Amino acid sequence: MAELLVKPLGEPREDGSVLNITPESAGWTYVGFEVVQLKAGQSLQRETGTQEICLVLISGKADVATKHSRFMNIGERMSVFEKIPPYSVYVPNDDQYELTALTDVEVALCKAPGLGTHEARLIAPEHVGAEIRGQGNVERLIHNILPENEPADSLLVVEVFTPQGHWSSYPPHKHDRDALPEESFLEETYYFRVQPEQGFAVQRVYTDDRSLNETLAVNNGEAVLVPRGYHPVSAPPGYEVYYLNVMAGPKRVWKFNNDKDHAWLAAPVK
Questions:
Q1: Helices (H) and strands (E) in the chain, counts
Q2: Sheet hosting strand 88-91, strand order edge to edge
Q3: DSSP secondary structure letter of residue 264
Q4: 216 Cβ neighbours under 8 A, 6+ residues apart
Q5: Following DSSP, what letter does each residue of 172-220 receive, concatenated?
Q6: 138 phi and psi, to 5 degrees?
Q7: Is the peptide bond before 171 cis (omega within 30 degrees of 0)?
Q8: Segment 227-265, tens digit of pLDDT
């Protein structure tokens, strides 16, 4: 089994890549994830090959061009902790993209198998569904960037803001069985940002039989692989936690089950 905690590269690559997860490195089939940091004026140019890509501007402003489309001067937030929805660009397989940084930029490349059934498009902030999920110390802010009711072949992309002292991805839930309509099989990555940056998040990844049972302290800029099992997150007091989720599997449906020991926590409050 691959190590669940993925740390950034010691030094950025020439193309600005600072963290890279491939199906091969993760030991799975569907999800790829990469973070690229560019200085103003630098560019990133890639072919999509067999993968569809969702470029999420984590911070900064950029121009993005594909084979048939151009999206100019996109981006608004300079920090994820402004908590406004991001600009993103969907690019299908058998296409290409060039991203030119207008300011310093951090961009996430969310990847999964493509079928060529959709065109490149801009996902502007007004097209991102924002919601508050949970209440009390499980309340968190959700930005649905590429949910299952929006066009894509495999990708599901969402970002979550967990206030200090709160829990998210909670009650613990899993989606590791290809058993629709009860549950879907989806691989998942979590990419974390923490404010202040010296803080950390805590994530547990475990299965019912405890054949997988890991508790991870996750630092700013690190990622976690969730190949199977339940995967709750905690933000320690004093530290706000952001994470970007990428999911994909054999069917583009998010159907999960809560840990039966803790499912009572999801019951409606009377």
A1: 1, 25
A2: 17-21, 32-38, 105-113, 51-59, 88-91, 121-123
A3: G
A4: 4, 5, 202, 203, 204, 205, 224
A5: -EE-EEEETTTEEE-EEEEEEEEESTT-EEEEEEE-TTSSSEEEEEEET
A6: -115, 15
A7: yes
A8: 999 999 999 999 999 999 999 999 999 999 999 999 998
d(CA 76, CA 55): 14
Polymer length of the chain: 270
Note whether 234 and 202 are within 8 A (CB): yes
Residue 66 in contact with residue 55, Cβ under 8 Å?
no
Q: Give the helix/strand (H/E) hosting 23.
A: helix 23-26
Phi/psi for 43 (5° steps) reads -130, 155
Q: DSSP assignment, residue 25?
A: H
Residue 268, Ramachandran bin (φ over 0: left; ψ between -120 and 50: alpha; else beta): beta
Query: Using a CB cutoff of 8 Å and minimum separation of 24, what contacts does 211-217 make?
Result: 212/1, 214/4, 216/4, 216/5
Beta carbons of 133 and 171 less than 8 angstroms apart: no
| pTM across the whole model | 0.95
Write out the two tokens for 244. Answer: 């970007």
Task: Using alpha carbons, select from 148, 80, 155 the residue that is nearest to residue 112.
Answer: 155
DSSP 126: G
Query: Could you tell me the CA-to-CA distances from 219 to 63, 77, 147, 184, 200 in Å, in that order?
Result: 30, 22, 27, 29, 5
Q: What is the pLDDT of residues 28-57, one digit of tens each?
A: 999 999 999 999 999 999 999 999 999 999
Task: Find out whether 86 and 48 touch, Cβ atoms under 8 Å.
Answer: no
